[in-house]
């Protein structure tokens, strides 16, 4: 009897243990579906700031271009970049991609059988690592693409019935988003996708910073090292030396609201901001905003920006769409130095509130953040903190003066490295603009910090108030600091105001300038600021098959540019003895339409009059180029011309056309050099056969970008 009881008890124990283990197994088996991407997918085409994806076999190919080493420009192939970095090989596999800020230069190298190319700069980068989820981070099972690619993606395995039921609402949203996308190529709706994550991750919390000022309705976890996302308190400012005027002596005492946080600052030592890509692996991903990149085929004024809370699913209430004719990401650097005094600091806040009202802040229009500078800069609030003019004005009223010197150069460095980040609401599809308010003159140098900011694509405006009198100019550290800082010295980027009491008069002129996106020179890049005309040899010696190869070469170059009415435009001329305008610059305004038009060009056949073709392209194409566009001619020929090329080419050069010549097989080297702009070795290329044309796609684009970035500013 006793043995029977023991056996029964032991059996029940084993049953319970087995059941518990099975339950634990089921709990742990919540599966993360990893979407599969194609070899040609570029990181910039995917909206998600961090994601895991599966690369197929066979991506190690020269046609899937890669730019950079370790940190890659976002128009690189994701999968080939992963091979270059050694994360996967040509058999494919899972990779983890993290978007980071743009970089001022990308170094090409040969690694793991892949040749990556150099690039002077690009507005967005990404890092590649092993395809394992990071603790506390949720990853999408469906990737969200820009409008140039369907949002449909492949999954590794089929969903079970429970998954389908659980994602029914998300599937409905996806269907709706897809229909909207197909019906209207301009207005795009991003869909919200359900994310499957292991249950162990759901309980993970991310530490929040010690002292921050954020909007409660949009609170997301922030790391203590992210300077741009928080306002870090600092020790009381040192008295300002006599090299700048001191006004309102009564204002030099510490403001009561400021004094309440001085004690906390003792333990929170200020650190210099770290370059974004160096700390990207450690900061948590913030999905509070979906970024709408500046897409080919869409005007920079087009909307498509939506808000999503990943960590706090509570929707934002009554978000204003804002002024859609002024889609910019704007940072004001407000002067918090002691020299400005209490009264003038209040006038400055009133001015900022009036600017916010005049701009029409909103999620589809301008977004505005504020950085206050003194001895050191600190972010009052970032781009995504407030999305209406009313809320922004209320927040501006509560800003307290921090005091200290007027270290404008340090503030510009801070903004360049730490403000325009995805985590802070930077949309990528809107020009970055900084307006610097200066009382008198800076107490540090601004030239180098401004140059680096401009090279990052930031448009810098200066509003100087009560400039140095003649007797005070010996105290100015850097004479003509405004001309050294702004994007152009034409006067468009600088406003001088004689008195703080007349500052209100420049609200409308300033708003008009920052919203004039066609004139924001620092937002122009080598890929979005050109009219490119292809002049294509259609003579009998080319042949039908080779002509199709030439058209593929033209298409491969064209698709690397950002094409729209306001970005790069493409035109084409075919020639034999005669010339034919295949399509003009204003004919097609989307990348897909341009690529389709190139594909439809029919082979003509005939003689080779290259000189006449250059003259025809100058008259029929480049005479209609926009004044703010760089005129680039790319001529492809396979033989010596029947007429003179030097005189027509010289005339084109004198009219501002930058000419590139590509010769194939029997093309004459002396004619190629005569056609090309100076220096000829950087503007002319030769290949022995048509099938080798593809080798010069990357080199040609790189040369165009290098030349663009070396232009004088003024």
TrEMBL record:
Residue span of region Disordered: 147-185, 197-248
LCCL domain segment(s): 55-126
GO cellular component labels: interstitial matrix
CDD domains cross-referenced by the UniProt entry: vWA_collagen
Signal sequence coordinates: 1-19
Protein's cellular compartments: Secreted, Extracellular space, Extracellular matrix
Record has GTP-binding as a keyword: no
Pfam families documented for this protein: LCCL, VWA
Record-linked SMART domains: LCCL, VWA
Free-text function comment from the UniProt entry: Promotes matrix assembly and cell adhesiveness. Plays a role in spinal cord formation by regulating the proliferation and differentiation of neural stem cells.
Protein name: Vitrin
Taxonomic lineage of the native organism: Eukaryota, Metazoa, Chordata, Craniata, Vertebrata
GN (gene name): VIT
């Amino acid at each position: 009897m006793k043995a029977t009881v023991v056996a029964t008890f032991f059996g029940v124990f084993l049953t319970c243990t087995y059941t518990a283990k099975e339950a634990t197994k089921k709990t742990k088996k919540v599966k993360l579906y990893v979407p599969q991407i194609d070899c040609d997918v570029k990181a910039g085409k995917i909206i998600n700031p961090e994601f895991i994806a599966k690369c197929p076999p066979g991506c190690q190919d020269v046609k899937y271009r890669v730019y950079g080493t370790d940190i890659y420009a976002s128009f690189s192939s994701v999968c080939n970049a992963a091979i270059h970095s050694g994360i996967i090989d040509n058999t494919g596999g899972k990779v983890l991609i993290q978007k980071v800020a743009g970089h001022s230069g990308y170094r090409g190298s040969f690694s793991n059988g892949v040749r990556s190319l150099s690039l002077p700069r690009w507005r967005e980068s990404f890092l590649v690592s092993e395809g394992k989820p990071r603790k506390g981070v949720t990853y999408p099972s469906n990737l969200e693409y820009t409008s140039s690619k369907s949002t449909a993606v492949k999954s590794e395995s089929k969903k079970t019935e429970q998954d389908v039921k659980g994602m029914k609402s998300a599937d409905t949203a996806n269907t709706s988003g897809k229909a909207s996308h197909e019906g209207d190529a301009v207005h795009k709706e991003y869909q919200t996708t359900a994310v499957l994550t292991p249950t162990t991750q759901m309980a993970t919390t991310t530490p929040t910073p010690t002292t921050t000022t954020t909007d409660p309705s949009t609170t997301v976890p922030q790391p203590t090292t992210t300077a741009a996302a928080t306002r870090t308190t600092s020790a009381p400012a040192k008295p300002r030396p006599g090299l700048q005027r001191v006004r309102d002596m009564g204002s030099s005492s510490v403001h009561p609201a400021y004094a309440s946080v001085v004690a906390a600052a003792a333990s929170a030592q200020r650190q210099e901001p770290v370059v974004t890509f160096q700390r990207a692996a450690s900061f948590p991903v913030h999905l509070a905003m979906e970024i709408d990149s500046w897409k080919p085929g869409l005007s920079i004024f087009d909307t498509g920006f939506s808000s999503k809370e990943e960590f706090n699913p509570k929707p934002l209430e009554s978000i204003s769409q804002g002024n859609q004719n002024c889609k910019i990401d704007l940072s004001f650097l407000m002067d918090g130095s002691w020299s400005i005094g209490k009264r003038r600091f209040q006038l400055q806040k009133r001015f900022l509130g009036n600017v916010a009202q005049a701009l029409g802040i909103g999620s589809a229009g301008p977004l505005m953040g504020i950085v206050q500078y003194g001895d050191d800069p600190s972010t009052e609030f970032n781009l995504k903190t407030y999305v209406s003019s009313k809320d922004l004005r209320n927040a501006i009223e509560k800003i307290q003066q921090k005091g200290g010197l007027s270290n404008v150069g340090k503030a510009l460095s801070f903004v360049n490295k730490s403000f325009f980040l995805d985590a802070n609401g930077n949309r990528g599809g809107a020009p970055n603009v900084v307006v610097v308010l200066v009382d008198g003159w800076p107490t540090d140098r601004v030239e180098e910090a401004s140059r680096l900011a401009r090279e990052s694509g930031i448009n810098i405006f200066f509003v100087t108030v009560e400039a140095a009198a003649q007797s005070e100019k010996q105290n100015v550290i850097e004479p003509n600091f405004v001309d050294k800082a702004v994007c152009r010295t034409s006067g468009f980027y600088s406003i001088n105001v004689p008195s703080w009491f007349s500052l209100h008069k420049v609200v409308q002129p300033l708003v008009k300038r920052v919203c004039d996106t066609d004139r924001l020179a620092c937002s122009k890049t080598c890929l979005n600021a050109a009219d490119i005309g292809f002049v294509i040899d259609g003579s009998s010696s080319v042949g039908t098959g080779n002509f199709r190869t030439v058209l593929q070469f033209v298409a491969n170059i064209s698709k690397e540019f950002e094409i729209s009415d306001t970005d790069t435009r493409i035109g084409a001329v075919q020639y034999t003895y005669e010339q034919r305008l295949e399509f003009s610059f204003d004919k097609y305004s989307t990348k897909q339409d341009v690529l389709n038009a190139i594909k439809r060009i029919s082979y003509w056949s005939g003689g080779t009059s290259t000189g006449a073709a250059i003259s025809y392209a100058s008259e029929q194409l480049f005479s209609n180029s926009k004044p703010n566009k760089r005129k680039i001619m790319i001529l492809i020929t396979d033989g010596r011309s029947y007429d003179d090329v030097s005189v027509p080419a010289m005339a084109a050069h004198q009219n501002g056309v930058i000419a590139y010549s590509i010769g194939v097989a029997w093309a004459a080297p002396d004619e190629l050099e005569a056609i090309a702009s100076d220096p000829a070795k950087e503007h002319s290329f030769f290949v022995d056969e048509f099938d080798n044309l593809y080798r010069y796609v990357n080199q040609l684009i790189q040369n165009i970008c290098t030349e663009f970035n070396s232009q004088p500013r003024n």
